[in-house]
Input
Amino acid sequence: MRAEVLKGHLDGLLLATLASGPRHGYAIKEALRAGSGGQFDLPTGTVYPALHRLERAGLIRGSWSTVNGRRRRSYALTPAGRRTLSEERSSWREFSAAVTALLGDSPWPAAT
Amino acid sequence: MAGRNVSDFTSRDPVADYLAAVTAKLAVPVAARVAITDELRDGLLEALESHQGRGCSHAEATAAAIAEFGDPATVAAAFGPELGAVQARRVALGLLVTGPLVGLAWIVAVAVNALPPWRHQLIGPWLALPLVGVALAVAGPALGLTVATTGRLSRRLGPVVHLATLPLTAAAVAALAAVVADLTLLGIISGHALTSPGSPVWALIVLAASASLTRVTVAGRAACRCLATRAALT
Output
């Protein structure tokens, strides 16, 4: 699936991958791919700028560690990030329910 | 990877070549370049190990990892708006910190020497002083806009923050306004020195003028860099 399709949802999806705990950039990208059944397979390199943007907005916090002799940056949700994720989830539930109601197979109400 | 594969990278370390190809396109300070390189390298090696774990040879795993990361130009372009925002924010914060210091230096110089503005007089070269006020009136909102669109407030501003060039434009405007203010003050004090008799405390005037001269240089360069980055994004 092309990255453009995710526009507007990428921030929420990235935050969701961190809901269960900190991850590094590649693990976040893999969580997106695996969690979507392979639908959201973004070029890995483009995930990092999005993470930096979320960090600048105060929604995630990055920290360096050393793993296997190389520097690794891992990200965790901040309290503001948790609140935003919760809002994104509520908003998505309302939006998807409305779209499902309109695009589903059930007949539309008769026009008056 | 669009238009490029592992064989296009000529050294014995395709990962290093790939990282060099990405970061060569990023106009960032050395520390930021090192941080980005380290982070991408870790991700690439994770991807490489993941492919090796699925039975690929080292060469196959390297090629697959690089392909997975995306074309260097695409990755560098994805960093563009983010790095532009960081650059604009750095310029704005620099101006916010130095502005009061430069202003204070001038106020002290004017007050101690009882220069015309201190006596509520705008005469001779001091007639140009309102131009400083106009410049500050432009710089203030531009700085506010830059800081708001590049920090935590940006989440609440909605679609406006998706204009990647906005913070760079605002930061460049603020920096240019600071240059105008400083050049005006330098022109005024030069005119005053040439036309007014008396023995002012030159040390304070030289201090204020040096502060302005430094800021003209730094803010001028910062404005040019912001505009160059902005042009690269459009």
About this structure: Chain B touches chain A through 33 residues (CB under 8 Å).
